[in-house]
Write a structure and sequence with these properties.
heterotrimer; A mainly alpha; B alpha/beta; C alpha/beta; B: alpha/beta; Rossmann fold; 9-stranded mixed β-sheet; 11 strands; C: alpha/beta; 2 domains; 9 helices
């Protein structure tokens, strides 16, 4: 039994490894995605992070020199040109009088809040204006012999459970999504080739005529594909470690670092997924009547893991989804990266589910190979 | 740390020395055998006004380093503010708090701000110096505000009052302060470093923390890669000299007022108003009834020179309160003390300082080196004189063993050192940094001319500090950004600042209309 | 020894096998002759266990191909049509793989592979990948695969299709040699000459059943024709689908 499996597995591995096009197609994903992500994140971060200096236009600045100086000391300045943001701060003409009389002096922030590129800058401006407000108010109360702390009936102290590693949020989601999907994309071409392809090349019937069970054959194929999925996983982890290391996360006060422990953890939770991925895609390819049809079906089926991963990434998954394969594993990876507690029950259940689906798909494939229709593509 | 650091340099200041020493808030040392150090357990923890999660732990240290196996021990508590992207896991930035007697843990938010760029790649390590914060705080409670206001310092025997209050505190605390000097505390920091496994440290000290940093460098030179000293307290300078610094810092306000047209116009006699008020209050106390700043109840105020000086002293720490001063004095001269009470609130900040550590440092490391000449020098200023008097009286009670005679030798080092001073600093003026660096062979002193005490809290210094730590050299630093104007426009009424054109506007129809409505 | 008994198989609407029975004996070459669509391939696929007969049975050396499929298959060497090569493997890897599939252990499989490769004079192409092989090279590789594990029975599905003269001769020699060694050789063909030249026994199939069985000479005798081709046409009643 085992010898036969080993023989089949070795042949599948050898055959697949010589299928340079399919292997590389899978590895291109593993190699390219982190690099693309790295570029994407860097661009995003640049927009998100409050750069040191915020240039805005200030109307009637002469009316409020103290305010303008306060903003300048916090690196918000009047400026023009390409670096200046489309934010206009208009100081009312009666600013100083109003201030002197203890009435609110109006300043207008003129900007488009729906513009994602401006949002952080607007918030920063609002925050600094708020601080200026409280500084002036503090002085006003002190000048009247009143403790400024009276303005603060409750002292809200935030204790943030986040660690520098756990703040990445969506970024972590996207990074882990790209890592998990490797297991599927690295396997795709090989899975189709070894099933629909093998049938189209007529070697499938010859194999099935040999003294072996179709389950052995299917398992050997799945194991070989899973190996390449895992190879893809190793590659994307290594490349990600390197690529994400170059993204200036710390500017946003968090960090995404893929350490060795995370890699080992990911390989461990990824293994059942690799088996699921391979068995699912092999099954779908066998159901398809031709190579081309298999490509179409597999592409469609892959939308399911992508969808599961997406809802996890954007944290819009309903509770029950967190027990499902892919979602739970990804959640665990994110948890691991964040350094927060990993939901073990979910991870265990979903890993068992993953293995169950793998078993079901493998069995189904082996049944398919007993069907004349499937074997001869009728 | 902004305004609060070093405030207890004046712990022997009459007002506080006479009133601050009532109840011991914590028992200093725990009676326990110093046990073998295992790796400390770290648990998540938080500090005030800092939402970031830190990791806290403690190690047990013998109270008396000379006899470690017997006697009392003390748990030294520390917190690690983890690096955002720990590229240098073997290094940490160790931050020393001021005081003497401030808790580094309490100042965590200030350190997190000052070291926010340095933290991008290195952990920030905060250690509560023995006798402060969580490491066996040595504190005696002070008077409440109502009682303080009612105190008439002009008609009290300050010396005997200070002595009796100090004795009371000594009896409650029951510790030998000789174990709480800068010299004695340095080994605790080293023990924490070893326990946490950092190979090297970058030091950041603010105010008195700069002296602690220098002492640490003196004892453990090989552990230190760089040191940033912000608001420098040299070994070869007595705290008594801060009276002169305070006077100079106050004088700068009036110079600035003279130079600014709206201030000069609003307060043409600002200087003489202050002198007149000081003179009056020296001669007699003014009794009046005022509103309690929080309860709004009518309470009694005995306004004295001591209270005025105290209020001025704390007002000097911040540019925002500095901008109030001419208005405060103007109103007080006219019999309206509301604004002055506002300034007096600053002393509330002093609550959590360690009285014990403060006296350990003052009596063990400062007083032994006074000379007749230096005392005469200190006595030239009101602050220096009253500090001398208080310190003398208190130290007689505490009986702290003096540190070795070579303590006052300036630190000699090749380690890169960045010294930062604020030109308006009322406690550690730029000249002190110059004194500290005479034997430093790899040092650079940068002055932010308009900054007050602790430059990193008010300027672009956090960036420079990070750059200095990364490059391990101060040579490349571009200090131009430190020149920025930090002073605020003077308050010309209780609502805000005047404009050069304020009078013109005041005459405008709009203004008249509004006034008419009121 | 291969024996099929009363095989029935319906594929779609077509009754592909309709009570097919025959036996092929050891030491003989048996030709399965029939026009296109007569049921030859269906018969062979049933023999390999790829198709399940609706009724009837197939046995190899007395082993039922359904109930004792593994043992039965081990006694069977298979030369499929088309060859079913792995383009990315070399003949050596390919042949050795099938040797192992048929239960030969590592060393034995290797030796057997060497042996069969030299027997077929394939040393020059043994370590080239099959991609780009000529039809003759493909045929040889497939044949090597079929006989590497030394099965008693060798089944060839249209083995001469697309072969040049030289290759055909090699194949012929080989089949004769196998016969000499006592193997049971069964091959399907619709090429008359081939069958006439090689077969000891011919099974003529039409519409899923055996219409005649015997040596070429016997068939000629029975139909009163002088050559097999005429005999064949006479037997199935048409010359459609037969190549001369």
């Amino acid at each position: 039994m085992m010898n036969l499996f080993r023989t089949l597995f070795r042949k599948e591995l050898l055959d697949a490894s010589r299928d340079k096009r399919s292997v590389m197609a899978g590895l291109y994903y593993a190699l390219g995605t982190p690099v693309l992500m790295c570029l994407l994140f860097s661009v995003l971060l640049k927009q998100l992070s409050a750069s040191d200096e915020l240039l805005i236009s200030i109307d009637n600045a002469d009316a409020a020199p103290a305010l303008v100086q306060y903003l300048a000391n916090n690196d918000i300045r009047q400026g023009e040109g390409a670096d200046a943001k489309a934010i206009r701060l208009a100081v009312s003409t009666d600013f100083q009088q109003q201030l002197q009389q203890g009435r609110p002096a109006t300043v207008i922030i003129d900007a488009d809040r729906a513009d994602d590129q401006l949002r952080t800058a607007i918030q920063r401006l609002e925050r600094e204006l708020g601080r200026y407000n409280s500084e002036i108010a503090t002085l006003r109360l002190m000048a009247r012999g009143i403790d400024p702390q009276l303005m603060q009936p409750i002292d809200v102290q935030m204790q943030d459970q986040a660690t520098p590693d756990s703040r990445g949020g969506t970024f972590l989601g996207i990074a882990s999504l790209s890592i998990i999907l490797t297991l599927f994309y690295a396997a795709m071409n090989l899975a189709i080739d070894t099933s629909a392809g093998e049938r189209e090349r007529n070697s499938l019937t010859l194999l099935l005529s040999q003294p072996l069970s179709s389950l052995q054959l299917v398992l050997a194929k799945i194991a070989a594909i899973a190996c390449f999925s895992m190879l893809g996983l190793v590659v994307i982890l290594l490349v990600s470690k390197f690529a994400y290391g170059m993204v200036p996360w710390q500017q946003l006060g968090f960090n995404i670092s893929l350490n060795t422990d995370f890699m080992l953890f990911t390989l461990l939770v990824g293994l059942p997924l690799a088996l699921l991925s391979a068995s699912l895609q092999v099954m779908v390819s066998f159901v398809a009547k031709s190579f081309k049809e298999a490509q179409t079906y597999v592409t469609m089926v892959l939308l399911v893991p992508v969808a599961l991963s997406m809802v996890t990434t954007y944290n819009i998954a309903p509770e029950y989804l967190q027990w499902l394969p892919i979602a739970a594993q990804q959640q665990a990876m994110i948890g691991f990266l964040k350094g927060s507690a990993i939901a073990m029950p979910q991870l265990l259940v979903s890993s068992l589910l993953t293995l169950a689906i793998f078993a079901a798909c493998s069995y189904a494939s082996s049944r398919l190979l007993k069907s004349e229709k499937v074997v001869f593509g009728l | 740390m902004n305004t609060t650091t070093l405030k207890h340099l004046c712990a022997a200041w009459p007002l506080i020395a006479a009133t601050a020493l009532l109840m011991p808030a914590a028992v200093a040392a725990q009676q326990a055998k110093a046990s073998q150090q295992a790796a400390p357990t770290l648990t998540p923890c938080y500090a005030k006004n800092l939402s970031d999660r830190m990791l806290c732990g403690s190690i047990r240290r013998p109270l008396d380093a000379a006899a470690p196996s017997q006697g009392a021990s003390i748990d030294i508590h520390f917190a690690v503010l983890p690096a955002i992207n720990p590229q240098h896991k073997q290094e940490a930035v160790l931050a020393f708090a001021g005081g003497p007697g401030q808790s580094a843990f309490d100042a965590a938010a200030t350190f997190a701000y000052a070291l926010r760029y340095a933290r991008e790649s290195r952990d920030i390590l905060l250690v509560d110096q023995r006798g402060t914060g969580k490491s066996g705080l040595l504190q005696c409670d002070g008077l409440d505000l109502t009682s303080q206001f009612a105190l008439d310092e002009n008609n009290l025997d300050i010396v005997s009052m200070t002595r009796s209050e100090t004795e009371l505190c000594r009896d409650k605390l029951q510790v030998d302060l000789s174990h709480y000097t800068t010299v004695a505390a340095a080994a605790d920091f080293e023990a924490v470093r070893l326990a946490l496994g950092y190979q090297h440290l970058h030091l950041y000290g603010g105010s008195y923390g700069t002296r602690m940093a220098q002492e640490y460098m003196r004892q453990y030179p090989s552990a230190v890669l760089t040191a940033t000293l912000d608001g420098v307290v040299p070994f070869n300078q007595s705290f008594g000299a801060m009276g002169a610094a305070s006077d100079a810092s106050l004088e700068a306000i009036y110079t600035y007022c003279d130079a600014s047209p709206e201030c000069r116009q609003q307060f043409p006699n600002a200087r003489s108003q202050l002198q007149q008020l000081q003179q009056t209050l020296t001669e007699r106390s003014i009794s009046t009834t005022v509103r309690h700043p929080r309860t709004f109840e009518l309470i009694e105020l005995k306004l004295t020179r001591a209270k005025l000086q105290q209020a001025l002293r704390f007002a000097l720490y911040r540019n925002s309160t500095r901008a109030m001063l001419p208005l405060v004095i103007d109103q007080a001269s006219k019999g309206d003390y509301s604004a002055l009470i506002g300034l007096m609130l600053a002393q509330d900040f002093a609550a959590d300082l360690s009285v014990g550590v403060n006296f350990a440092v003052v009596c063990g490391e400062d007083r032994p080196f006074w000379t007749a000449k230096s005392q005469a020098e200190f006595a030239k200023s009101y602050l220096g004189q009253s500090w001398l008097q208080g310190a003398k009286t208190s130290c007689d009670v505490w009986q702290v063993t003096p540190v070795a005679a070579d303590y006052t030798a300036p630190l000699q080092t090749d380690t890169p050192v960045l010294l930062l001073s604020g030109g308006l600093d009322p406690v550690t003026p730029p000249g002190w940094a110059e004194l500290a660096m005479v034997k430093m062979r790899n040092a650079r002193h940068l002055v932010a001319p308009h900054a007050t005490h602790i430059v990193a809290s008010q300027s672009c210094a956090p960036k420079l500090i990070s750059q200095f730590i990364n490059q391990q050299s101060a040579a490349e630093l571009d200090e131009r950004c430190l020149q920025q104007e930090l002073r605020k426009a003077f308050l010309t009424n209780a609502n805000g600042t005047a404009m050069p054109t304020a009078t013109a506007l005041a005459a405008s129809p709009t203004y008249t209309t509004i006034s008419a409505q009121e | 020894m291969i024996k099929v008994t009363d095989l029935h198989k319906k594929i779609g609407q077509v009754q592909a096998l309709n009570g097919l029975s025959f036996a092929a004996h050891n030491g003989t070459i048996t030709g399965l002759l029939g026009p296109n669509g007569a049921g030859k391939t269906t018969c062979l696929r049933t023999l390999f266990g790829l198709l399940k007969a609706d009724s009837g049975s197939a046995e190899i050396d007395g082993l039922n191909v359904v109930s004792q499929s593994r043992q039965a298959k081990q006694q069977l060497g298979l030369f499929p049509d088309p060859c079913g090569l792995y383009e990315r493997l070399t003949p050596r890897e390919y042949v050795q793989f099938f040797a192992q599939l048929n239960g030969m252990a590592g060393k034995d499989a290797k030796d057997a592979t060497d042996e069969v490769l030299s027997l077929l004079k394939m040393q020059d192409i043994a370590d080239r990948r099959c991609q780009g092989f000529s039809q003759g090279q493909r045929m040889k590789t497939a044949l090597a695969q079929a006989i590497v594990h030394k099965p008693t029975n060798i089944v060839l599905d249209e083995p001469t299709r697309g072969l040049d003269v030289m290759s055909t001769r090699v194949l012929r020699d080989l089949l004769l040699m196998l016969k000499q060694q006592g193997h049971c050789v069964l091959f399907s063909s619709h090429v008359m000459q081939e069958v006439a030249a090689l077969c000891d026994q011919v099974v003529v199939i039409a519409a899923g059943r055996v219409v005649a069985q015997g040596s070429p000479a016997e068939l000629c005798l029975r139909t009163g024709k002088t050559n097999l081709e005429d005999a064949f046409i006479s037997l199935i009643g048409t010359d459609e689908g037969i190549a001369a």
